[in-house]
Amino acid sequence: xxxxxxxxxxxxxxxxxxxxxxxxxxxxxxxxxxxxxxxxxxxxxxxxxxxxxxxxxxxxxxxxxxxxxxxxxxxxxxxxxxxxxxxxxxxxxxxxxxxxxxxxxxxxxxxxxxxxxxxxxxxxxxxxxxxxxxxxxxxxxxxxxxxxxxxxxxxxxxxxxxxxxxxxxxxxxxxxxxxxxxxxxxxxxxxxxxxxxxxxxxxxxxxxxxxxxxxxxxxxxxxxxxxxxxxxxxxxxxxxxxxxxxxxxxxxxxxxxxxxxxxxxxxxxxxxxxxxxxxxxxxxxxxxxxxxxxxxxxxxxxxxxxxxxxxxxxxxxxxxxxxxxxxxxxxxxxxxxxxxxxxxxxxxxxxxxxxxxxxxxxxxxxxxxxxxxxxxxxxxxxxxxxxxxxxxxxxxxxxxxxxxxxxxxxxxxxxxxxxxxxxxxxxxxxxxxxxxxxxxxxxxxxxxxxxxxxxxxxxxxxxxxxxxxxxxxxxxx
Amino acid sequence: xxxxxxxxxxxxxxxxxxxxxxxxxxxxxxxxxxxxxxxxxxxxxxxxxxxxxxxxxxxxxxxxxxxxxxxxxxxxxxxxxxxxxxxxxxxxxxxxxxxxxxxxxxxxxxxxxxxxxxxxxxxxxxxxxxxxxxxxxxxxxxxxxxxxxxxxxxxxxxxxxxxxxxxxxxxxxxxxxxxxxxxxxxxxxxxxxxxxxxxxxxxxxxxxxxxxxxxxxxxxxxxxxxxxxxxxxxxxxxxxxxxxxxxxxxxxxxxxxxxxxxxxxxxxxxxxxxxxxxxxxxxxxxxxxxxxxxxxxxxxxxxxxxx
Lengths: 477, 307
Hints:
The structure holds two protein chains of two kinds. Chain A contains 20 helices and no strands. Chain A has helices spanning 2-24, 27-58, 61-97, 100-104, 110-142, 150-177, 181-187, 189-208, 211-234, 238-242, 251-263, 269-283, 285-308, 310-316, 319-325, 341-360, 365-387, 392-425, 434-466, 468-475. In chain B, helix 3 crosses helix 4 and helix 8 (216-224) packs across helix 10 (293-306).
C-alpha cells in the first residue's frame, strides 16, 4: 500500500515538475507572481501603517487590530488567484494544443496525472503567496506594528493553502468538461464567484474576530476542497479528456437522458411508482438510514443546546414571543394556524427546492445542512416547550406528529436523495460522463420528489391546516 | 500482436467504429486506410485503452484493453495525430521526461535519447527549445518519443506527414527495420504509396467499418479483377486472330503491342508465349501492367458509393 502510494506520488511529481519547469520559463506567469510578491505586500504595509496612524489619532485601536490580519489574508489570497489560470491553462491548454494525448497513452494512472496537475497548479502560486506573507510580516516588524498572533497566522496560512487547492480542484473539474481555454474561462465564473463570496465571508469573520467561527470556516473550506478534489479524480476520464463535442449544448440529448432515467422502462404510473420510485428508494436505502440517524442527532443536539441555554432564552423572551415559537417546527406561527393550506404547502415545497438547489452546488452538503437545521429546530422547540412548563411529549404527539409523520418523512427522503447525488458525484463511474451522472441523479431526485415527497407534503399540509391546530389547542395548558 | 473482435465504439448515436475485426502478428505491418473521420484514430485510441469499447474486445501485446489498460499502454508506442510536443522543452528534456514516464533507468534513457536523436538528425539541435523546430523536425521528435521505450507494438498515425522526402525515407527505413525486429505495427495513413511500400496487410475502413482487408495483391485481385499484362512484339502484331488460351481476355490491340486480362498468369502466360512463337512473333516483353494501391482504394470507395 505504502509502496503504491509512494509510486503514485513519484509519477505525480514527475508530471508536476515538468509543468513547473514549463511555468518558470513563461514570463506571463512569472511577471504577475513577482509583482504580487513584492508590490502587494508593500501596499498592504502602507495600508496597515495608515490604519495605525488613524487609530493613534482617533483612538479606535480595534480597526487596526482587525485590519492587520485582514491584510494578511489579502496578501496571501491574491497570488493564489493565479493558480486558477495556471490550472485551466495547464489542462485545457494541453487539450487544445494536443499535448495531453501523448501523456494519456502512457501507463500513467489517472490519479497520478490528476495529482501532478494539482501540485503543478498550486505550487508556484502558493510559494508566491507565502513569500508575499513573509514580506508583509517583515514590513510590519520594521513599521513596529504588532504582527497577528500565531492562531490568526495559522488560520490565514491554512485558508490560503486550501483555497488554492479548492480553486485548482475546481479548475481541473472544469477542464475535464471543456475542450477550449475559451470555454474553460467562461466556466471559471463557477469558481471565481463562489470564491469571491467565500473571501467576503472570511473577511467578515476576521473583522468579527470570533476564533471558533473562523476555525469552522477553515474546516468547511477543507471539506469542500476534499470533496471537489474527489469529484475531480472520480471524473478524470481519459475518454472525456479527448472528447471534442462536450462544449456543445445538446438540449435534445439532455432531455432524452433525463426522460430515459426518469421514466425507465415503465409504461404506466403504477409501474413507474413500483419500479422507478420505490426502486430508487431501495437503491438509496442506506443513505436514507444515515439521514434518519443525522436527523435524530440534530433533534437531540437542538434540544440539548436550548436546554443548556434555556435560562438565557427565557430571560430574553417575553411570553408572547415564546408562544409564537411554539409551533415553529411545524412551519408557521400559531396565529396563522388554519389560515391557509397553500401557504403551508408552498412553504414546504420551497424548503424542498432550497434543499435541492443548495445540495446541487455543494455535493449535497448544504442541502443536508438545511435538513439538519430543520430537525434541530424541532429539538429546540421541544426543549422550549419543556422550559415553558409544558410536556414536550404531549405537544410533540399532538402538535408535531400528526402532520410530522408525513412532513418529516418527505424531508428525510428529499435530503437523502440530495446526499445521494453528492455521493454519486464523488464516486468514480467509468464509462459515464459527469453530465450523464448529474442528469441521472437529478432524475432520481425528481422521481422521489414527484412520486413521494409531493404527495406526502400535500397530506402533511392538509393535516397541519385542518387537524393539527385543533389537536394542539386542546392540549395546551 | 494485435487482435480485435467486433471492436465497436459509439459516441451518442454515432458509431465511430463498428464491428472491426483485425489481426496483426509480430513482424507484420498493417496499413489502415480511410477517409478523414472514417474511424482510424478512434480505432488507435481503442487499441491504446484511451477509449473504452462500447462493444467487442481487443487484445494488444497479450493484454485485454479493458481489463489491463496500464499494461497495454506500457507496451504500446503511439504516434498521435497531433505531435503533442511541449514547445518550451528541449528535445533531450522531452525524451528524458517520457523515458522516466516509461520507467527507464537513467543510463538507458541517456543511451536511447542519443541514439534516436542521432538517427533522426536532431542531435545538433537537441538543446534548443522544441518551439524553434520545423514541422518535420517535430514529427521526427514525436516519433522518437514513440520509440523511446522500445515497445513491441507500434501504432503510428500519419508517421511521415509534413516530412521532406529524405526524412520520410528515414522514417520508412526505421519502420521496416522495426518490422524485422518482430514489432507489431499499425500505420494509419493517407499516403498510399508509402502504405504499399511498408504494409504486409491493408485494411480499408469506411464509416467505422472495415470494407476490405488483405495483402496488397489480394486486394488488387479482389477489387480490380485479374492482372493485366502487356505483350510487346519486335514487329507488327499478327493479322490473324490468336488462339488464346483459356482465361486470357484481350483488352486492347495496338500495332506492335496488346493488352490482356489474364486470370491465372502461371498457367496462361507460357501458353500465350507458345501461341505467339507458333505465329513467329518475336516477343520483346511480357509484363504486368502496374496497378497501384490508389486504384485499389478508389475502387473500394467507388463500390461503397455505388451501394
